[in-house]
Each structure stands twice: as structure tokens, then as C-alpha cells.
């Protein structure tokens, strides 16, 4: 039917004429309460957002000269973050002359990845960015 006829019918029923698919020839329209339609659409979008899993990135910071016990504490924190389902960004901070030995920082990051091993996947390999070397570890999917 023509758009004028459809519009007249919609006004008689106190409803709206809503274009559903404008690319179709002829365009497809529907007579409905637009306010109610938008409300239901927003409810569906909100429900879909609830079901999404949001990853949070937690950070663990280390220094190249870290002692074994301190490393163990940082490792436990990273493992706990992974168990909670969060990604972990492991950062090695270099100061002064420590910058001349980035291989020490890389060795620490590799050690952390090996110890987290079965529970984690290295998402981003160790990379030196300015005075920091970072690596991102994600939990293994079940």
C-alpha cells in the first residue's frame, strides 16, 4: 500500500509507522507503538550486555633485582588474578644502569610465564617500551 494510506491507518490507531528495512524495494514498514518498541529493544541490548564477559587487566610490577621470596609473592598475586578470570600485565621497571641489561628483565618475564604455565597463556610477548618491559598473560579458557 502507499505510504499515505499506511500513515492514515497508523494515525487512526494512535500508533507509529516505522520503517523496518529501508533497503528493500519497496521499503518494508510496520505499524506499532514506537516508544514500546524502543523500550523492548533497549531491554534486549541490556540483557545481551549482562551476558558478556568483561576482562579486567591487573598489573604486577617487578624490578630486575627482585629477590626469590618477593618474586614468589608477585607470582601468587598474578596466579590469583588469573584464577579470578582477569588478564595480567607483568611489568619490569628499569632504573639507571639497569637499562644496560634488558636481558635480566626478559629472563624474569620468561620465568614468570613458565611458572604460571598451566593456568595461563602469554598473549603479548615481552617487549621493551621506554624504561619498562611488559608482557600480557591471559587465563586459559576452560
UniProtKB/TrEMBL annotation:
InterPro entries: T_IF-3_C_sf, T_IF-3_N_sf, Translation_initiation_fac3_CS, Translation_initiation_fac_3, Translation_initiation_fac_3_C, Translation_initiation_fac_3_N
Stretches assigned to the Translation initiation factor 3 C-terminal domain: 56-140
Gene Ontology CC annotations of this record: cytosol; membrane
Keyword Transport: no
Domain spans labelled Translation initiation factor 3 N-terminal: 1-48
Residue ranges the record marks as coiled coil: none
Function noted in UniProt: IF-3 binds to the 30S ribosomal subunit and shifts the equilibrium between 70S ribosomes and their 50S and 30S subunits in favor of the free subunits, thus enhancing the availability of 30S subunits on which protein synthesis initiation begins.
PANTHER family: TRANSLATION INITIATION FACTOR IF-3, TRANSLATION INITIATION FACTOR IF-3, MITOCHONDRIAL
Protein name per the record: Translation initiation factor IF-3
Organism: Succiniclasticum ruminis DSM 9236
Top-level taxonomy: Bacteria, Bacillati, Bacillota, Negativicutes, Acidaminococcales
Amino acid at each position: 500500500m502507499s505510504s499515505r494510506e499506511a500513515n492514515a491507518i497508523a494515525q487512526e490507531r494512535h500508533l507509529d509507522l516505522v520503517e523496518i528495512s529501508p533497503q528493500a524495494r519497496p521499503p518494508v514498514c510496520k505499524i506499532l507503538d514506537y516508544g514500546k518498541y524502543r523500550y523492548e529493544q533497549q531491554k534486549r541490548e541490556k540483557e545481551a550486555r549482562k551476558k558478556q564477559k568483561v576482562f579486567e587487566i591487573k598489573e604486577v610490577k617487578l624490578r630486575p633485582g627482585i629477590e626469590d621470596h618477593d618474586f614468589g609473592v608477585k607470582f601468587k598475586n598474578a596466579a590469583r588474578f588469573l584464577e579470578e578470570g582477569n588478564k595480567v600485565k607483568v611489568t619490569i621497571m628499569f632504573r639507571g644502569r639497569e637499562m644496560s641489561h634488558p636481558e635480566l628483565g626478559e629472563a624474569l618475564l620468561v620465568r614468570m610465564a613458565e611458572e604460571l604455565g598451566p593456568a595461563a597463556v602469554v598473549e603479548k610477548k615481552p617487549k621493551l617500551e621506554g624504561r619498562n618491559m611488559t608482557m600480557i598473560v591471559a587465563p586459559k579458557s576452560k
